Fold this protein.
Amino acid sequence: MVFAMRIKVLVVIASLLLSSCVVLAQAPSGAASDQKPSDQKSTEQKPADLSQQVPSISADRGECSALFTVVDANGKPVYQASIHALVRWGLAHKTDLTVSTNYYGKAQFTRLPNYSKKPIAFEVSSGDKKRTVYFDPGNRCKDDFTVELK
């Protein structure tokens, strides 16, 4: 008898929980729901145009960064130019990083080490054109480079 009573109580509790979930799912969210959907202002940020996003790669070593703009001999941005760097720290640690430029010729390396015994060499290439740029995070932690490939 006691067992049957406990089962009935559990069934009642379960049905109450289920009905409250259904009611909550159908309830309007917030006071602004009385307005028409076109009147509601969206708090969501629209994603930026993908062509304007700067490709970025992180070395996870510090707070320094290097932003690259790669242009051709005529000053036009180079799409899909490859930028490669070998970041070394400590005695035997290194990270091999490569990123390609976007439509506007831009790419970024982030979280580079704050200090390096030797400047970090960035090899910029597109097709048969190649150029090396050096970055010394000890002198200037955040730097912008415009690289002209000839």
User: Anything to note?
Assistant: Helices lie at 2-26. The chain has one helix and eight strands.
